[in-house]
Amino acid sequence: MKDLIVIKVGGNALDQLSTEFFERLAAWRQAGKQILLVHGGGPMISKLCQKLNVPVTKTDGVRVTDEQTLALTKLVLLGQTQPLLLQKLSDHHLNVQGLNAASNYLLKGRYLDKAKYGQVGAITYVNQAALMAELKTKIGVLAPLALTESGEWLNVNADQAALAVASKLKAEKLYLLTDVAGVLANGKLVAKLSESTAAKLVQKGIITSGMFPKVKAALTAQRSGISQVFITNSLAKQGTQIESEE
Question: Considering the entire predicted model, what is its pTM?
Fold first, then answer.
């Protein structure tokens, strides 16, 4: 939808949201834009796991999620990070609604590789009618969790969740909000990033594990038809914008 803006807010970025962020959301709403925030919570999940002596294991950058880790992930996302973000938005007089997969089965998914990653999934279906009904009057705040057809919960990478929703709803813009200005090469911002340039930066070890999932999601979003895709730490700055190959 040409008036839909999807913003992924990472766990690290939650504590760094500026007044400018909330003002930009308010301005978009006044201009008739529909807004969906997809929030992460990785650092908080790892912290709680460590506190409870639950092993934190990542394979290929994916959090291996057994039943215990899944329970803690749901606890953090739905009981800590989502309420925190909702409160911050409400404090700035924004009309908001917390959302998750169990709300009208908003998100359905499949196992990514159960033997390798456990309860980790990829989104296969977005309940567009139910989601857009919520976004008509409120800013949606969505947790990156999905349900299988048989009702099992799946942990979904927040970048991939934002990408899936933005792609399926044909969003106008996708922002992957992080705690750095964008993709950096030798300390300098890469303002425009194409697939071939990204591949070179990965090969040189400049784009590494922390930024790689965001770049991968951003490039996929651009290929899926979302014309404006940004990796940034501010909605007022384009940071790194993904561009198509010449």
Answer: 0.94
